[in-house]
Specification:
Elements: E1 15-18, E2 21-22, E3 28-32, E4 35-40, E5 47-55, E6 59-69, H1 95-112, E7 120-121, E8 136-144, E9 149-153, H2 173-176, H3 179-187, E10 197-202, E11 207-212, H4 219-232, E12 235-239, E13 247-248, E14 256-260, E15 265-269, H5 279-293, E16 300-304, H6 312-318, E17 321-326, H7 329-341, E18 347-351, E19 370-373, H8 386-389, E20 394-399, H9 402-414, E21 418-426, E22 436-443
Parallel strand pairs: 4-6, 7-21, 11-12, 16-17, 16-19, 17-18, 19-20
Antiparallel strand pairs: 1-5, 2-3, 3-4, 5-6, 8-9, 8-10, 10-11, 12-13, 14-15, 20-22, 21-22
């Protein structure tokens, strides 16, 4: 009969450390007696005092309790909830230093995971305003009897509990400044304990909040919710089950749109559709993508994971033809409609699961000289072998995960005969450890 191991007590006294670097999730890295320790709130070259929060066989974790020698990169966090809330991890670091750190994360991943080097490292793509940028988010809601209130916000760092917030600096102010009013609103509902989540979706002007409800609202609840929406100029939606149950409370569907001004385009989307969270960076990213592909009037482009046409429509303005493929049939329908509304008639859209067998797909029977990929976090490994077979000479890869980009870069370069011409990062999620990047490959 095996005995359960007693959990070793953590040391309680603060420990001194000099921070060597930042890891991929924004924690300071040091070594104590040869063992790696990842420390929340620490920056490279700082001397700190920290306490242990977790110990394991391979590495330990800790939390800064005092900064003895601060880094020149250290700044005062703008949000009073930083450190408690898990929505941000880098507010204590200067914004320029944040994106430079992310650039190093990308270069390191390409080198160590993909075994490749980029001929050119692009200057980071940044937007002037690092605050109030999030136009898509899911935030939790929970009535906590001990506090006598409803908590609304992101989870606490390293915890399943919702942080006790009064505002949020990274959400667009339309919602970020409504955390306290939202808390008071839900607190007055008959189902305050049955409303676990609020999803935010915002276009250039219109804002939608989707309230997840586990029980029906009373008439009084609905009246309060309608009044809240009217007061704050927000469209209220409800979600009683899966995504297919999302519906406007008033019955009036919100017209969500965002513009790509440099191309004279306006795209429509539904509140549940995937869109980039940061409109400013998205516009710069689309511009950079079109510029890097250097499209000519006779180019035939294959776009994979096309979504609702964010890249497709600008590409189609420059190329002879764009064939765009996406696994979500709803997004494909929106992409077709967006093309029609914007007078784009040289883009053809297909629905296909790009992670499964594609042998019967009609778009694979043609050839293309350029391709754009914008896959999910898992990357595009399964589709890569098709690209050289289709005659693709240039591949532009947009990534939200440097590890899978690096893996796929290694496959393209070391197996399929491409070279990595340029790569760089984009500041899609300031004050977080999330790394968005772009890479250009050319056939040797």
């Amino acid at each position: 009969m095996s005995r359960s191991r007693r959990r070793k007590k953590l040391p309680t006294e603060p420990v001194a450390a000099t921070i060597e670097s930042l890891n991929h999730d924004g924690r300071g890295v040091t070594h104590i007696e040869g063992k790696a320790v990842f420390i929340h709130g620490a920056l490279p070259e700082e001397e700190v005092m920290f306490t242990y929060t977790k110990q394991s066989r391979k590495f330990d974790e800790g939390q800064v309790v005092e900064v003895i020698k601060p880094s020149p990169e250290r700044v005062e966090p703008a949000c009073p909830h930083f450190g408690l809330c898990g929505g941000c991890s880098l507010q204590h670091q200067d914004a320029t230093a944040q994106i430079q750190h992310k650039q190093q994360i990308l270069i390191g991943a390409l080198t160590h995971i993909g075994k490749v080097q980029s001929e050119e490292i692009l200057p980071p793509l940044v937007f002037d305003d690092h605050w109030g940028y999030r136009r898509k988010a899911r935030i939790g809601a929970k009535y906590v009897a001990k506090k006598g209130k409803v908590l609304v916000g992101f989870r606490e760092r390293g915890s399943g509990f919702i942080a006790d917030l009064s505002s949020c600096k990274v959400l667009h102010p339309k919602v970020g400044e409504l955390i306290t009013p939202l808390s008071a609103l839900i607190e007055g509902f008959s189902i305050r304990e049955k409303m676990p989540q609020i999803e935010m979706a915002m276009g250039d002007e219109t804002c939608v909040l989707i309230f997840r409800i586990l029980e029906p609202l009373s008439e009084e609840d609905q009246t309060k919710l309608n009044a809240f929406g009217q007061q704050h100029d927000i469209h209220i939606y409800l979600q009683e089950g899966g995504v297919d149950t999302v519906r406007p409370l008033s019955g009036e569907v919100a017209d969500l749109t965002y513009a790509l001004p440099d191309f004279g385009l306006e795209l429509h989307f539904l509140p549940t559709d995937f869109t980039q969270v940061n409109t400013g960076i998205n516009r710069l990213m689309v511009n950079r993508a079109v510029e890097m592909l250097a499209l000519k009037p006779d180019d035939k482009v294959l776009e994979l994971f096309c979504g609702l046409g964010n890249f497709t429509l600008p590409l189609a303005q420059k190329a002879a033809e764009v064939i765009a493929v996406e696994g979500d049939a709803g997004l494909v329908a929106r992409a077709r409609e967006n093309a029609k509304c914007n007078g784009i008639d040289n883009a053809t859209f297909y629905t296909a699961n790009l992670f499964e067998s594609l042998e019967n797909e009609p778009w694979l029977k043609h050839s293309y000289n350029k391709a754009l990929l914008d896959p999910p976090r898992t990357g595009a490994f399964e589709i890569l072998e098709q690209l050289p077979k289709l005659g693709v000479q240039q591949i532009l890869y947009i990534s939200c995960n440097p590890s899978t980009l690096a893996r796929d870069a290694g496959e393209l370069v070391n197996k399929h005969g491409y070279k990595l011409k340029a790569a760089g990062v984009m500041d899609m999620f300031p004050h977080t450890a999330h790394v968005e990047s772009i890479a250009l490959f050319e056939k040797v």
